[in-house]
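Minimal example, chain plus 5-amino-5-deoxy-1-O-phosphono-D-mannitol.
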Amino acid sequence: QKDGFRFFMEKEIYEQSNVVSDCMLGRLQDEEILFEELDSSILNGIKEINICACGTSYHAGLTASYLFERHSKIRCNVVIASEFRYKEPLLNKNSLFIVISQSGETADTLEALKMAKNAGLKTLVICNVDNSSMTRLADNTILTRAGIEKGVASTKAFSTQTVVLWMLSLYFAKQNDKISQEVLQKELHALREVPKSLIVSDKMHEKTRRLSKRYLHGHGFFFIGRDVFFPLALEGALKLKEISYLHAEGYPAGEMKHGPIALADPELFTIALMPENLLYDKIKSNVEELSARDSTICTISPLEFELSDDFIKTQEASHYMLEFFEMLVVLQLLSMEISIRLGNDVDMPRNLAKSVTVE
Ligand code: M6R
């Protein structure tokens, strides 16, 4: 069943390129995005979007908040479902309530969805499991078509969620007449390239395997990025924590000097996400500051950077989201290889369950 892979997580990392193609099938058209499953009046009267989710699905939601505001020009708030439930949230009827869940069964996310429904909001679930509690409850469902995900550490669920949300931001942008045909075509072109950017090359896998030898000795890890690469940094840190049991934190790179940089020393490993196509100079100066304080720096980027102690080279790409997906694969492989070297059970990490159906 593992098809020759050592763990389900490894198999699922390698599957991403194909499942993302399935996920885009029929939705990514020549000149537009189509979601036939959505109620055509879904945006009528909608002034803002609220997203609720947990864990990795929350990171997909955070990524989406950048894309919804950038493309659809709709204000977007993202809240962790367990926080949302008890904060006495103000729910406006003019907001679209989106929940994101691989399983469709996560207790906190399900409760948040119920609250939104009871308050009369329009609801949408982005989910991998048809006929789950959330798909049965929500007004609208978009299935991510990732196939069964067995590894507790979510991989292909995240890549498909992110692709769906990116497509949705463009679909909404078009519906609201907020995107030019020229920009839309560029985005569609980039979307077509996503499966390629998710292909695992032998070289990339080997590089993460080699680095894992030293990185398992890290006392702590900072994953840093800006814009959508900030949620990606959170996701990289979560993957490492879950399966390697090493302490890792994801941070917006510009936030380091507001406190966390005090921790910097050679035993602290910084994994810096440095895309060529988005805020490169800004993150570069954040990494320079960390390097000046002797943090060990690993940069993931298409561009070599003289201050890196280690460098994982990604492909040059025409769009930052393509860099995002390739870096995602690197982060997944790195955490998996570290976990394997530590002798951990990659697919069933301690203290965790695949689906969290209790509060
Ligand atoms: O099934 P869901 O997407 O609702 O699950 C949410 C989280 O429990 C899940 O993403 C968790 O964080 C994963 N183990 C992360 O790899």
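The chain has eleven helices and ten strands. The radius of gyration is 20 Å.
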